[in-house]
Design brief:
single chain; 335 residues; mainly alpha; two-stranded antiparallel ribbon; 12 helices; globular
Length: 335
C-alpha cells in the first residue's frame, strides 16, 4: 500500500511556510489583482495580491522531489504539464500586473499556448506505451481502445479543463475548494487501479508509475489546502491564472494518464456549470442581444441575485462532493 498521508502533510506544511513569503513578495512587487469595472460587488477586493497559485505549484514540486520512488515517468510528465500551464498563466498575470488592467494575454495568444501544450501531450499519450489509446468507460474498469481518436480527446480535455477552471476562479475559495474535492476523487480512483494491478500481478513498472501519480495527486491537494487557508473569504491572496490554468492541467493529466477522462465532466461538474453558462450567455446574446443570466459565469449570477459569496462557495463544494461520492460508489460497484 502506498503511503499517501506523509506527502500530503509535507506539501501542506511546505505550502503554509511558502504562503507568507509569496504574499510578502507579491505585495512588494505590487502584484495586485485588478477587478473588472462591471463586477461591482467585488470592488472591495481591488488591490488584493495575486500569483497565489505559486503556493501549491512550488509545494507540490518540492514534495515530489523527495517522495517519488522508482519509475515516475508519467508523474514527471504530469508535473511538466502542471508547470507549463502555470507558466502560461503567469505570463497572463504578469501582463495584467504590469499594465494595471484586467487584460493579460489576448484570447488567441492564450489559446495558441494551450493548444500547443495540449498537442504535445496528445501525441505523447497516443505514442506512449505507458498510456496509449485505451480509456475506461465511466464508473467501470471496462477498457475501450479508441485509437487515433485519443488525440482530439486529449486536446479537448486539456482545453476544456484549463478554461473552465479559469472561469470558475471568481470567488474566494471557489476554484481551489472544488479542485481539492475533484483531486480527491481522482486520487481514490488511481489508488483502486493501483491495488488492482498489485492484486492481479500486473507489471511492477505500471504499479510504480501509478504509485508516483498518487504521490503527485496528494501533494497537489496538500499544497492546495495550504493555499485555501489564505484564499478563503476574505481572501488574502488570489491564485491568478497561474493557479487556475495549472489546476485544470493537473486534473486533466491525472485523469488522462489513468484512463478516467470520461468521468471528468461529472466530478468537475461545477467547472462544467461555469463553462456552459458562459457559452449560453455569449451565444444567446449574439443571437438575441439579450442575456440569460444577470452575469456569467453562473456563480456571478447568483451573486447578483443577492446570494452570499461564502454560501455560493459552500453549495458548489457540496455539489462537487456529491458528484464525487456518487461516482466513486458507482465505480466500486462496477469493479
Amino acid at each position: 500500500m502506498v503511503n499517501v498521508f506523509l506527502p500530503f502533510l509535507v506539501s501542506f506544511i511546505v505550502g503554509l511556510l511558502l504562503a507568507p513569503l509569496i504574499l510578502k513578495i507579491a505585495k512588494k512587487l505590487h502584484a495586485n489583482q485588478t477587478i473588472l469595472h462591471y463586477v461591482t460587488v467585488h470592488k472591495s477586493k481591488e488591490g488584493t495580491p495575486t500569483l497565489g497559485g505559486l503556493i501549491f505549484l512550488l509545494s507540490t514540486l518540492i514534495t515530489c522531489l523527495f517522495f517519488f520512488d522508482g519509475q515516475a515517468y508519467l508523474a514527471w510528465v504530469a508535473i511538466a504539464v502542471f508547470l507549463s500551464f502555470g507558466l502560461l498563466g503567469f505570463l497572463d498575470d504578469f501582463i495584467k500586473i504590469r499594465t494595471h488592467k484586467n487584460m493579460g494575454l489576448r484570447a488567441y495568444q492564450k489559446i495558441i499556448g494551450q493548444v500547443g501544450i495540449s498537442g504535445i501531450l496528445a501525441w505523447f499519450v497516443y505514442s506512449s506505451g505507458l498510456v496509449g489509446s485505451t480509456i475506461y468507460l465511466p464508473w467501470s474498469f471496462v477498457e475501450v481502445d479508441i485509437g487515433i481518436w485519443i488525440i482530439p480527446l486529449v486536446i479537448i480535455t486539456y482545453l476544456a479543463m484549463t478554461n473552465s477552471a479559469n472561469l470558475t476562479d471568481g470567488l474566494d475559495g471557489l476554484a481551489g475548494g472544488v479542485s481539492f474535492i475533484s483531486l480527491g476523487y481522482l486520487v481514490a480512483i488511481i489508488f483502486i487501479l493501483n491495488e488492482m494491478m498489485l492484486n492481479n500481478g500486473e507489471s511492477l513498472l505500471m504499479y510504480k508509475e501509478y504509485s508516483n501519480m498518487l504521490v503527485l495527486g496528494v501533494a497537489v491537494m496538500g499544497g492546495l489546502l495550504a493555499f485555501l487557508c489564505f484564499n478563503s473569504h476574505p481572501a488574502s491572496i488570489f491564485m491568478g491564472d497561474t493557479g487556475s490554468l495549472s489546476l485544470g492541467g493537473i486534473l486533466a493529466s491525472l485523469a488522462l494518464f489513468s484512463g478516467q477522462a470520461l468521468v471528468l465532466p461529472i466530478i468537475c461538474i461545477t467547472f462544467v456549470m461555469s463553462a456552459v453558462s458562459v457559452i449560453m450567455q455569449v451565444g444567446y446574446f449574439k443571437m438575441k442581444h439579450k442575456r440569460i443570466f444577470l452575469m456569467a459565469p453562473l456563480h456571478h449570477h447568483f451573486e447578483q441575485k443577492g446570494v452570499n459569496e461564502t454560501k455560493i462557495v459552500a453549495i458548489y463544494i457540496v455539489i462537487t462532493i456529491l458528484a464525487g461520492v456518487v461516482s466513486l460508489l458507482l465505480c466500486l460497484l462496477g469493479r
